[in-house]
Q: What sequence folds into this?
């Protein structure tokens, strides 16, 4: 049986998932249909089996009766009748026709006997003085036996054909049930789990990114604050120094303002 | 007077007759379960020992019957070899029946295009005649007559009765029965020239045979396209039931009608008691054997040879039935086929 | 044997018989002018030599007896041989039938010997050439006794032969029948003995003596 983990070798994407899902649905519908077919065939099979047993039993008695009727004819007519009958045959009086029968999509050959009517009255004077009636009786009972024989033949052939068909169907049902469907199901499961995994990873990464961003923002804010503090202090110092030395060093004070503005926009986004 | 020429043959025939299978033999044979048992029984307990001895292990009914035929032919041939003029003629008449069978067989084979050898193989050696092989190559009635039959005793029967132009199955069966009818009539004429005893006995036996022939034809022609006139044509011109019985038989349509006719004749009354249509056939066989048994009670006549041949036929038939019944495991029907007179 | 009496010969025999009767009646009624001249016939019978009759009698006795015996043995023998092909045991037993037939011939021979011892020379009358009445009577007696014995034994031989052949066949079919049929055969062979007895009595009166 298919191992629990067996699955198709596919890339777990959403598209594949859709394909596999449709395949799974197909397999399940096929399985249901095949199951029905197998049931129908088995039903027919059982019926044929019963018919075969009955036909065989009937044929056994019928053949025996026919042989015995022939013995009676020989007894009543002696050797002459035997030779006359054997010599009197040149072509078949009974033809077997084959045609097809359809059971749940399985073609079953069917045989039927047909008498060539033209020859019906041919041998009827055989053994006129000796055992003619017996010969006719034997002929009739052999005719009956041939009918049964062809019936049995078509039953037997149907039996064999159906047997084959049932085996194939069952194999298919089993394959669908125990191999194809679980595999597809496993694949679906796998793809789903794989997709979930991906989603989770993304989520996590997003979260991570978000966290980093927060941290960065905080850091920047902290640095800005420090810088501001430092600048403020420097400005304060400058201002104090400036207060000491008025005039000569005004240019530097302007340069200090430019650096301050450069620190302003340090954003990642 | 009779014995001077025929005493030996007669005694020989009677000797053979005492070696026929008896009621007890049949009873014991009926108890056999396989064909091997039958073979062993025949080998140890009957006169067939030298014929069945060489049969190979899987014994078929056909083999046993073949052995019986061999014995029949051997016995008959001894009679023929010992016979001188009137008896030999009589024995020849006995073979004509087989000759007719052979002729019909050959005609059938000819129609089907069988080879000469295949046909001759099936022919009974008792009724073999030299020109039989010529039958096979002939194509029309005239040719058949000219090539094959003109030298045989059947020629006179043939020319006087057969006018059909073409040969097909129906005609062949008719030919067989017409020939047989002519043969019986000729045999009757021949027997009328014999001595008193033979004539009386043979008249009885042949009348019986003629009646049997007519009744069987009537019974077997129901449901066939044989017309009543044709049927009437196949009846002989003598017999216990001749002429009015035959005339009425010719118009019969059912078994019951035949029975109604048969009731009028004391010797056949027994036959009408059963409802089974085949009972009549079997009953006729029994009657014939009884008549033959009576013929065997008399001495110094030719009828015993006729009776002897009939007994041989009957025994072969019995054994055929017996072996087939055993081979097909139908022992419950054994009784209906075995006919014997003690 | 029974063939003589079959259907078609009966009218013929009847016609012959009637014709003969008419002849006889007409012959006796009209003396001399009938169809048969009885007086002449009488002369004929009185003039024939008695020794001729005696010799004929002896010949008939032995000849017909032997013919009967031979016939019987033939009938028995052929059946016996045929039957013996299948049942050889009957040959020795059924020799009795053959011996019975043989006995018939022996009867004939015995009578022939008895009759021939009776013959003695008696001269005829020198004048008329006729024999004495007693001599004539003796001649006829010997003839009659020989004929009696011969015919009786002929028929007896056939009878024993037929029964003997049946005996052989019956014995071959069923050994218990042998004795029963043998009894019948003995009765059959007794018939010949009757003929022999009558022949002896007849011939005892016949004396050829000189007068």
A:
């Amino acid at each position: 049986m298919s191992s629990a983990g067996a699955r198709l070798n596919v890339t777990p994407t959403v598209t594949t998932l859709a394909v596999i899902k449709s395949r799974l649905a197909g397999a399940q519908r096929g399985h249901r249909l095949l199951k029905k077919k197998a049931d129908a065939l088995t039903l027919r099979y059982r019926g044929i089996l019963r018919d075969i047993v009955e036909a065989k039993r009937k044929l056994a008695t019928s053949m025996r009766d026919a042989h015995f009727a022939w013995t009676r004819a020989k007894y009543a007519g002696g050797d002459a009748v035997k030779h006359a009958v054997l010599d009197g045959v040149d072509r078949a009086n009974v033809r077997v026709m084959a045609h097809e029968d359809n059971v749940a999509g399985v073609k079953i050959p069917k045989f039927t006997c047909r008498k060539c009517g033209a020859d019906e009255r041919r041998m009827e004077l055989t053994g006129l003085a000796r055992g003619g009636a017996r010969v006719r009786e034997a002929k009739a009972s052999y005719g009956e036996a041939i009918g049964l024989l062809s019936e049995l033949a078509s039953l037997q052939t149907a039996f064999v054909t159906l047997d084959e068909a049932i085996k194939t169907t069952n194999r298919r049902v089993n394959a669908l049930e125990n191999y194809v469907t679980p595999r597809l199901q496993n694949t679906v499961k796998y793809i789903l789990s794989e997709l979930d995994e991906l989603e989770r990873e993304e989520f996590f990464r997003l979260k991570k990114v978000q966290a980093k961003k927060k941290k960065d923002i905080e850091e920047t804010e902290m640095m800005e604050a420090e810088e501001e503090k430092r600048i403020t202090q420097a400005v304060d110092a400058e201002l104090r120094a400036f207060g000491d030395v008025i005039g000569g060093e005004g240019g530097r004070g302007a340069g200090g303002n430019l650096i301050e503005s450069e620190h302003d926009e340090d954003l990642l986004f | 007077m009779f014995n001077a020429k025929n005493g030996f043959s007669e005694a020989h025939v009677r000797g053979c007759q005492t070696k026929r299978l008896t009621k007890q033999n049949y009873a014991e044979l009926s108890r056999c379960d396989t064909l091997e048992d039958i073979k062993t029984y025949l080998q140890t307990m009957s006169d067939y020992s030298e014929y069945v001895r060489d049969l190979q292990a899987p014994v078929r009914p056909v083999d046993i019957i073949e052995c019986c035929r061999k014995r029949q032919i051997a016995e008959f041939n001894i009679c023929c070899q010992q016979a001188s003029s009137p008896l030999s003629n009589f024995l020849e008449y006995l073979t004509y029946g087989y000759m007719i069978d052979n002729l019909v067989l050959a005609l059938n084979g000819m129609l089907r295009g069988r080879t000469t050898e295949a046909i001759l193989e099936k022919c009974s050696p008792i009724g073999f005649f030299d020109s039989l092989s010529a039958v096979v190559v002939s194509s029309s009635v005239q040719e058949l007559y000219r090539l094959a039959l003109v030298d045989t005793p059947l020629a006179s029967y043939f020319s006087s009765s057969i006018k059909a132009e073409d040969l097909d199955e129906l005609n062949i069966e008719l030919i067989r029965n017409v020939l047989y009818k002519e043969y019986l009539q000729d045999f009757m004429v021949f027997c009328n020239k014999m001595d008193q005893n033979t004539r009386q006995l043979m008249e009885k036996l042949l009348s019986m045979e003629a009646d049997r022939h007519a009744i069987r034809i009537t019974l077997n022609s129901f449901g066939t396209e044989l017309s009543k006139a044709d049927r009437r044509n196949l009846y002989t011109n003598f017999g216990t039931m001749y002429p009015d019985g035959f005339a009425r038989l010719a118009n019969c349509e059912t078994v019951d009608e035949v029975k109604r006719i048969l009731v009028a004749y004391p010797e056949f009354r027994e036959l009408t008691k059963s409802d089974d249509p085949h009972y009549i056939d079997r009953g006729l066989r029994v009657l014939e054997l009884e008549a033959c048994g009576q013929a065997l009670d008399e001495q110094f006549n030719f009828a015993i040879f006729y009776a002897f041949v009939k007994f041989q036929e009957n025994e072969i038939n019995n054994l055929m039935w017996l072996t087939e019944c055993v081979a097909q495991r139908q022992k419950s029907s054994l009784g209906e086929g075995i006919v014997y007179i003690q | 044997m029974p063939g003589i009496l079959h259907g078609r010969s009966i009218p013929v025999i009847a016609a012959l018989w009637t014709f003969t009767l008419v002849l006889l009646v007409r012959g006796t009624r009209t003396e001399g002018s009938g169809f048969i001249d009885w007086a002449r016939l009488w002369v004929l019978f009185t003039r024939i030599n008695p020794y001729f009759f005696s010799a004929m009698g002896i010949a008939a006795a032995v000849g017909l007896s032997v013919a009967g015996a031979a016939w019987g043995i033939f009938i028995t023998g052929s059946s016996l041989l045929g039957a013996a092909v299948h049942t050889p045991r009957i040959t020795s037993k059924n020799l009795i039938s053959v011996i019975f037939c043989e006995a018939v011939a022996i009867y004939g021979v015995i009578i022939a010997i008895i009759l021939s011892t009776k013959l003695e020379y008696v001269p005829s009358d020198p004048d008329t050439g006729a024999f004495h009445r007693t001599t004539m009577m003796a001649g006829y007696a010997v003839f009659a006794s020989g004929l009696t014995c011969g015919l009786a034994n002929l028929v007896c031989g056939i009878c024993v032969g037929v029964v003997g052949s049946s005996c052989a066949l019956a014995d071959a079919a069923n050994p218990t029948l042998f004795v029963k049929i043998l009894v019948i055969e003995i009765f059959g062979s007794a018939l010949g003995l009757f003929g022999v007895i009558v022949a002896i009595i007849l011939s005892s009166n016949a004396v050829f003596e000189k007068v």
In short: Chains C and A do not touch (no CB pair under 8 Å). The two ends of chain C are 47 Å apart (CA to CA). Residues 1-36 of chain C form one domain.
